[in-house]
Queue: 2 jobs
Job 1
Amino acid sequence: MIDFSFRRTQGLEAGIDVARLSSMVGFISTSNVEAARRHGLVAAGTMAHSYIEAFPTEVEAFRAYAQDFPGRVTFLVDTYDTITGIKHAIATIKELGPTGRLGIRIDSGDLVALSRQARKMLDQAGLPHVRIVASGGLDEFSIDQLVRDGAKIDAFGVGTRMGVSADHPYLDTAYKLVCYEGRPVMKLSRGKVTAPGRKQVFRRLRPFGDLVGLHDEEVPPGRERLLEPVMIKGARQAARSGIAEANARFAADLEHLPAEAKEIHSPRPPLVRPTPALRAMTFETRRGLVARNRKAH
Amino acid sequence: MIDFSFRRTQGLEAGIDVARLSSMVGFISTSNVEAARRHGLVAAGTMAHSYIEAFPTEVEAFRAYAQDFPGRVTFLVDTYDTITGIKHAIATIKELGPTGRLGIRIDSGDLVALSRQARKMLDQAGLPHVRIVASGGLDEFSIDQLVRDGAKIDAFGVGTRMGVSADHPYLDTAYKLVCYEGRPVMKLSRGKVTAPGRKQVFRRLRPFGDLVGLHDEEVPPGRERLLEPVMIKGARQAARSGIAEANARFAADLEHLPAEAKEIHSPRPPLVRPTPALRAMTFETRRGLVARNRKAH
């Protein structure tokens, strides 16, 4: 998976963040060169259609690109006609013999049929090492379907739908005050009630599930604390973790999630329950608030 | 309409942009103080639930706020119980007599019933000048419905759904090369064919409609050119227009749009057609490209 989202993100800042975050969850490279520079990621150059259009013919564009970037060439083959484009890519590789990482990219049309045809053409030309990259409005659902349908695709460029989180464009969360001067506080607004007090999350791996409790509760048997202080009075409590470390943690966390939570279609999130102590504090805090506010008027 | 979107936008940069853009289309103020400072907008302070929770009682919070900001107070009344909150706001106003712009804000529950009840309570208390502000996951559809249902709301705070453009989280457009060294160029990718050549848009106001043609075509009778050079060789061609000017242009443009294009539900966009000259150039460019690319191989 390659991050192609920069031209769709909501501003430059969001584009840099998407490149970083996608690398944490396993994307191998990004088309965002500045994000790659800042965060030590692999920059995957994408040849633009406009590059090809700027030459009188596609073959001339392919030749120029292969001469300028012999170490890593991915020929974009669908500007005019995909099958002809694949022929032009093969001819250019045979003619110039670039020795770096080679690929072709298909950005439109029937990706299953075209990728199978491309694989056959490349193999028959003695180029089994040339990878096939697909792009064009892809998301987890279309990629899952392409794989099931037997597309011969080695890498997917994913842009728009990841970069703006198209199917979940916002996360309806907010910081809420839960404790002030040692006093647990909460909101009683209809449909927006919060739980008071400082929290801790107690995770059990098998069977998987989280308990949300108070920060000073004893750890229930078979569970571990998830929350730890990251910053105290402005001072970081541990070294900043790099992308490789974040990536490893993500992989481990993902591994522990139950299978039904990892389904692409209709995933079922694991159950999260409050501890009895948190329930009791919620009840008490609410009762105290209602009494005090009634009296105050 | 007040911009409340900052806490949901995809980064700080996007938050500043949303405040600016929403002011261009008629929003009267923003909760984003930095955007207001940068772009000369009205900053509308929003009292947070956490502010109220930080005091032992709601009444104490209201009193403190009214004393600190007597010039502009909007009491957030739904932290614990909305009707009680309205009573506390009325009591605080009567007690401290702030003379600035006064309002209450309802952020949850049945906004129609609560706003009608609030209006009645405020009027009966001799406070008809106290405005009612509503917020909480609002968008154009819910606001339209609230107005139809007779809610007594003077101003709406709109955040999440505007700040991330929730129902259209991305605009599927891109810069395309249409001309290179004086030669018209185009893309023939399946489903992504572009029209070649430098363009002009010719608008007719009545009946409303746009023609897209070539930049050097004569203006068809009854139409006007929409595109004009903004920058040439890095030099701005006219003074930067301010928000007031942009706002006036938006209002005028909106006025000219046909009614069916302005419907909130299922709007029908006006027809946009190519001119015969653009059609002819598209045909010729495609023919030339296909011939050249076939020959090249």
Job 2
Amino acid sequence: MQTPLPPKGTRDFYPEEMSFREHIFSSWEKTCQRYGFEKFDAPIFEHLDLYTKKSGEEIEKQLYTFEDKSNRKLSLRPEMTPSLARMVAAKGPALKKPVRWYSIPRLFRYEKMQKGRLREFFQLNVDILGVKEVTADAELIAVAIDTLRDLGLDNNDFSVHVSSRNLLEELFLQLSIPKESIKPLFLLLDKQQKLPKDVFKKELEIFLKDQRLATKVFDILNAQSFDEIVAINPSSPSVKDLQNLFTVMDHYGLADYVTFDIGIVRGLAYYTGIVFELMDKNRDLRAIAGGGRYDRLVSLYGGEDTPAAGFATGDVVLAELLKAKGIVPDQPSRSDIFIATFNRENYNQVVSLANALRQRGYSCEFPLRPIPIGKQMKLASAARSKVVIFTGGQEEKEDNIKIKDMRSGEEFLVSKDELYTKLADRLSNS
Amino acid sequence: MQTPLPPKGTRDFYPEEMSFREHIFSSWEKTCQRYGFEKFDAPIFEHLDLYTKKSGEEIEKQLYTFEDKSNRKLSLRPEMTPSLARMVAAKGPALKKPVRWYSIPRLFRYEKMQKGRLREFFQLNVDILGVKEVTADAELIAVAIDTLRDLGLDNNDFSVHVSSRNLLEELFLQLSIPKESIKPLFLLLDKQQKLPKDVFKKELEIFLKDQRLATKVFDILNAQSFDEIVAINPSSPSVKDLQNLFTVMDHYGLADYVTFDIGIVRGLAYYTGIVFELMDKNRDLRAIAGGGRYDRLVSLYGGEDTPAAGFATGDVVLAELLKAKGIVPDQPSRSDIFIATFNRENYNQVVSLANALRQRGYSCEFPLRPIPIGKQMKLASAARSKVVIFTGGQEEKEDNIKIKDMRSGEEFLVSKDELYTKLADRLSNS
């Protein structure tokens, strides 16, 4: 039999890839906890209508759907927000607001395979529910930035592009674009970055059926600064929100990261206010993270009206960026301590020593079968052990133990009495 | 719209349940790392034939199967071992042995709902591949025991029941039971614990078509001690393996946990040697963990012959046991520090302070909108914060800051200069 492969669009995580994944996850966790967010999770599949309710039947094309044996229509989750909104709706007023939740869901989208996209992937999701003010949006942008800073990236590597759907809507209404055209227009605008400028402008003309109007929309979308927009509409509440947001970001110490970019609309139809995307400075990857305000989703699932904002960042694009920057950490030790033996008859003694070390909290392994000392040393290297303790040798007769530091290559003897203190010294500064 | 429910047999993890799940997972992780195991993962769905190949078409009844849009037959994973064996087979000799891997997979089985069973659940899986000696089995049993000890359980709470399929097979062959009957007989024996003794004996008689033979098998299965079995067959290799296993467990300091129990066979047909189950002492729960040797699985998937052993332990039964014992930890703080304010105009100052605290690694939150001080204190309680820092009050005029320790109720003033040292003192011993 030929060895079967993992399904298309999925990944095996051998320990080396797994430790890179864990490096990213642990950075996400640490940052969210520092910001006072608590973790939640939901089932990995949901009733299909949870997704069609939010995104229309159209979404089914991208879903892994199936029926269970009682003919319930289910779908693997393509995103976390519907589950979050469902859970918040279910608890109603019993759930203390603001909700400050994060999750690291595994997600599934049946998509064409391309760079930065897989069918099974992970995201960090961070959400605040119960705060209508732009302060929540600012707090979320700060978390998003700090997850990347914690991984070693800074404002030479990425920036946050912020816009407001309300602001765009206001500007479009001023141009007398009918209200019902605005949602489809947003979906069109979301394609802007993927199209050459002239092609995009042509599509605008076709959509608006008015060349002059298309030019005006195009000019707004190409506004070079926030000031140009403020000048059009200085007293608008959306402009005020954005001004407040930029001021607060300054107090987070993050003003350098944030830039106004009216071209950001985010494809998903459910956003209602501020929207933002984190992008690499070279702009040769997909967005690293994206989010915004979605004030109407909880009530869509039968919950009480709950203002909400959140963002998501995926592991695939992020991993590409970290690799491109060369900031992938070394794979950690499988065992800090490897116990080798010169004596094939002392297995029980080795086990007792390992047990004593493990009880003290050290990670430790030893050969489970009799193999020559040369092979034992290869095994210690494969385990990326920091030190090797040699048992069953001549030194034991004088109550000494030989230790090799695998990082420096240095070998030394310690008396049996001082083994634990010497090990503690060696391993504490690593 | 009525708020939708999670699908049958699945769970929502609100932060409280999530922190209990994380408590269990982190104990699993810590123990495996201490024993020198490294983490891996695989896709959450696999090609269906990965499972039918190992367990027969019969298994499909228990699977969540579906077709993707290219008509690939896929299944959510019901267990991790097939993915593990596939990954080991794929790497062949390039993968250094022994493989010492663990994983915490999310798994899915379409089963009748009952106590200790859900359709979506988690397991810890720990495996050693490349070691044919019983020392690997002993190492795994030690890990299994220590995951439970790390959670606060001891030998008053559970014990490890060990047997050997080879030993049983030897004994049955001595009784002239034909070789081809032995696998089906194992499947029957696995039902023993679920049936009254006389019903089980009747089923044995029907299966063996021989009342005297059935009595002999029944007597073997009811042997009270390992010595009785040794007496039947003192020089058998399986007996030697078990004797070695018990000796090694003594050197792990775990002899008190391990008991010989010939009645353990484990339902799955692929086990080939030592098998074991961890059971609560009251025996009113399902097995907490179970495992054994499966030397032929890697070659079944086209890999080279690779001796292997492993065990799995699930979160559902374990959580029940911890709850029954009352050893569920308190939900941790969402934020160690809560910044309250008496002044609705100083939001930016609060953000700056939060930023400084977070940069120092503290977890910290503050009200994102103007609310009265009483509500702020309720929010601090909801966040289970350890201390509240008050800003915008009278004290600030004298360059002091008021702090409340929420655990003791104590309030005190510190000068602005000593804020960070005082906080470090307060929060280090908690």
